[in-house]
Structure formats: structure tokens, C-alpha cells
Amino acid sequence: MKKWRIYVTGLLLTLVLFIANGAKGQEMLGVVFSNYTGVSTAAINPALLTGTRVFMDVNIIGGNATFANDMIYFSPDNNTIRKAINQDSTIFTGGRFNWGRTFNYYNNTNDKYFAATLKIIGPSMMLQAGRHAFGFATSFRSFQTGKNIPYGIPITSYEGLSYPEFHGVEFDDIDFDFVSLTWSEIGFSYAYDFYDLYSNRFTFGITLKGLLGHEGGYINMRNSSYVIENEQDVNFKNIDADIGFALPYSYDTTYTTDFDPPVKGYGAGFDFGLVFTKLKSTVVWEGEEKLCARPYNDYDFKIGISILDVGAITFTKDTELHKFDNVSKNWIDFDTIQFKGIHYAMQVYSKGFYNGDPDASYEGDQIRVWLPATLSLQFEYHLKQRIYLSALWMHPLRFNSRTVWRPAQLAFIPRYENRYFGVSVPVSLFDYKDPRIGLAVRVYSLTIGTDRLGSLLGVSNFNGMDIYFSFRFNIGKGSCISYKKGACSNSDFGNDW
């Protein structure tokens, strides 16, 4: 087996390879802000379910993949999607470092981050009955995130221990973490217009979720103090860390997948939201009792607030927790360590930091990883006819260092939409510092979009990507109004949708 030189603080990057393997969404702004996507609006606020133009919506399939970071990037001449995912351009392959790289690192002293997410939306639906709306959704989700990452990690990952500017420098890094979580989700949503008088409407909504955990893990680094003496030796002056994992790999071999059992933990979560809607007019409907007969009541603006993804998954199968409690070691020939699997790596570190005891770091067989909890505010203004202006603010709520981090986002989303066509151009600020522009197009039931158009077109440094799609069918409100009861083509009664 070839030797893999573990860079930076081998203790960190070994586990990062497993926990953050496979950089895989964000908010799908072109889908969730639409009056024709029904059940998808619950992703940012379950209280929005009653205010769409459809009384029934069925999502057949959808998905979103996102990766963002400020550690490394591909220059414009190497930032096409094909080159970015080419094996020779990646940092690591099969546990080995690739020297045939085309990426660069950000050479500054700012703390770093990365966030890789994947969401596959399975069969989902919503149905509105008067003031009540009910939703059911299935999805597969995956988050791998790092927060407050020391600036030296991407540099030494690229340059190696032989980087002379770091020799003899004492690094004292505190409170950074890597967290990973992959799970399947079944959600049940309910929304109710609890106040609907004249042109004012208040709605609350809630989604309850059952969670099946497929993978989870974290590195909680409270302190990492070390000196890279030279290209072989590292003096770890203090390591204070918790490392927990329940991963779909064989722990005894190098990078061999093992999906038995496929479910390694269980959990629960919820979303909750409130929406105020200022309606254009008052429509009192005393017509047919059919669900499809209730008319759509247009609005001037909406204001919503929601808390998303509150919950956690407890892993108990194929799970290990290791603790390194303020340990130290002047590690001679650190670069000669061989990587033969997670168990082997943990035993090497345990023996190194705990006077030859390979099991001293082991703490237990259960860990808990928290969902990417988020506070969200939404605003939408109906400018004229089919033109809408929307705004979104999302801010992460981290309960502890074992919480998956969902990056903050500010977005402004102008859009045009009718029943058969829609287009939106989201302009957003990612993590309060990274400006982006996107594009989403809907043709009847199919939506395709991105919130990072520049990365896909190759007009800027490639440090991430975002792409999403949705395929669905639905039926509009007022679509079955009797010709004896009203004008079926009158937009006040919902048929002009």
C-alpha cells in the first residue's frame, strides 16, 4: 500500500477525508418562490402552503446540489465543470494526495469555511381544503460543513509540511469544527389561515419530520496548538478534541464503502412558521363544496418568519466517539505514518498521544448530530400582474459544535410567472460576503435553475457551484367552478392562473 503523507495536523485531515468526502443544496430560490410550486414552498416556511395558486400539487422528483468554500479555487481557465470534477483535478483520490492539481488556495489569514450539500426530493404533495392545507414530503439530504477553519489548513494541504514559511511557527487554533450528516426525511406539514378577515390574513404552519440517519460525524476542535518543526516532524503542544463518527465505510480498510446497516441512527425534527398576507380584495366564497372550487385570492404583499430544521439524529450503530483531552506529543517522522483505515488511524493517534495505549481515546458507541437549524425571514411584493419581487434572509442557529452549519444568505428575487412559464433572477449575498447572481426557468411542470450562474459560465474563479431542478404537476384553485356560479375566466375566482 502506498504511503499517504498526512498534512497539517494529521489528526484533523484524516477524519476530514471521511467526514467531508464527496462534496455534494442551498435554497432553490427559483422553486420555493413561486405561486405554482405548492408543496415546495414549505421548505422555507410551512405557513406559505395556503397562499399559492394551486389547491393540489404533486412533486414527482427534484434535486439540488451545492458546494461553496473560501479555501481553494479553480482559476477561470480551469473552472469548467468537466475539469473541476475530473479525477486528476481533485485534491484527494482514494486517500492519496494528487500532485497533478490545477487548483489554487486563498493566501490570506482569514478563517475559512466550506459547505457541501445535496438534496434529492422524492414524491411529495400538498392539498388545500378551505383554510387548511396539508402536505407530505420525502427527501434525501446530505450536509458536510466546516466552520472557522484555520487559514493554515488549505495552505499546508497544498504545499505540504515542507512549506518553509510555516516552519518554526506556533499555531494556536481554537473552536473550529467539521460536521457531516446524511439522512432520509419524511415530513408532514399543516398550515391554517387562523385569521382571515377583510383583506388581512394570518397563517401558521408546522412540519413534523421523521429522520433516518445514514451517516454522521464531527470533529470538534476546542484547541489545536502545534509547531511544524520541519518537513518530517510536528510538535503537538496541545490537542483538545472530540471525534465522533458513524460512516458508510469499512473502518478496517482504506476507503472501502460499507452500507450495512444502511440506517445507523434515528431522530426527529420540525419547522415552524407564520405569514401575514395583505390581500388585494375581500372574496367571500360560499360556493360549491368541492376542494377545487375555492377561488384564489390575490395579494399585495406577504411577510413571513420561520424556524427550520430544529432537531437531531442519534447514531448508535457502527458508531464511535473518541476524545483527546488536552494531549501533547513531539511527533518525530510524522510524515511516515501509513494510512490503513479509520481504526488503524485512531489507534495510531491514541498510542501516540496516550503513551502507547491504542484504546485510550475511545469514549463510547453513541453520538448525536444536530440538523442545520435556521432562522428565516421572507417578504414578497406583487408589483403588477405577473411580476413579483421577493426577498429572503436566512441565518444559521447553531446549538453546539455538533450542529451542521447552514450558511447565512441574503437574497433579492425578481420574477415573472404565469401558468405555463416563469423566470426568476436571484441576486444573493452568501455568508454575508460572497455576492452571486442566478437564473431559474420554469416551463409548465419543469424548473431548472442555479443560484451561482457565474461559476457555471466560467466567468469567475470556481470555488463552488449550485444547480437544481423540479418536476411536478398541479391543479389551480377555482378550476372546477360551475359556470352557473361565476365567470370561470375571471382572475378574482382563480381560473386565470
Please tag this protein with its features.
497 residues, Porin, two-stranded antiparallel ribbon, 6 helices, elongated, disordered C terminus
What distance separates the N and C termini? 63 Å
Helix content: under 10%
Q: What's the number of domains? A: 1
Radius of gyration: 25 Å
Average pLDDT confidence is 84
List the helices and strands and how they pair.
Blueprint: H1 11-19, H2 29-32, E1 54-69, E2 72-74, H3 81-85, E3 92-93, E4 96-97, E5 103-105, E6 112-121, E7 124-129, E8 132-149, H4 152-159, E9 170-197, E10 200-228, E11 234-246, E12 265-279, E13 299-315, E14 320-331, H5 342-353, E15 362-364, E16 367-370, E17 374-384, E18 387-396, E19 409-417, E20 421-424, E21 427-430, E22 434-437, E23 439-443, E24 446-450, H6 453-457, E25 464-476
Antiparallel strand pairs: 1-6, 1-7, 1-25, 2-5, 3-4, 6-8, 7-8, 8-9, 9-10, 10-11, 10-12, 11-14, 12-13, 13-16, 13-17, 14-15, 17-18, 18-19, 19-20, 19-21, 20-23, 21-22, 23-24, 24-25
3D architecture notes:
With 497 residues, the protein is mainly beta. It has a single domain, classed as Porin (Beta Barrel). The longest helix has 12 residues. It is elongated and about 80 Å long. The relative contact order is 0.19.
Task: Summarize, please.
With 497 residues, the protein is mainly beta. The protein has helices spanning 11-19, 29-32, 81-85, 152-159, 342-353, 453-457, and strands at 54-69, 72-74, 92-93, 96-97, 103-105, 112-121, 124-129, 132-149, 170-197, 200-228, 234-246, 265-279, 299-315, 320-331, 362-364, 367-370, 374-384, 387-396, 409-417, 421-424, 427-430, 434-437, 439-443, 446-450, 464-476.
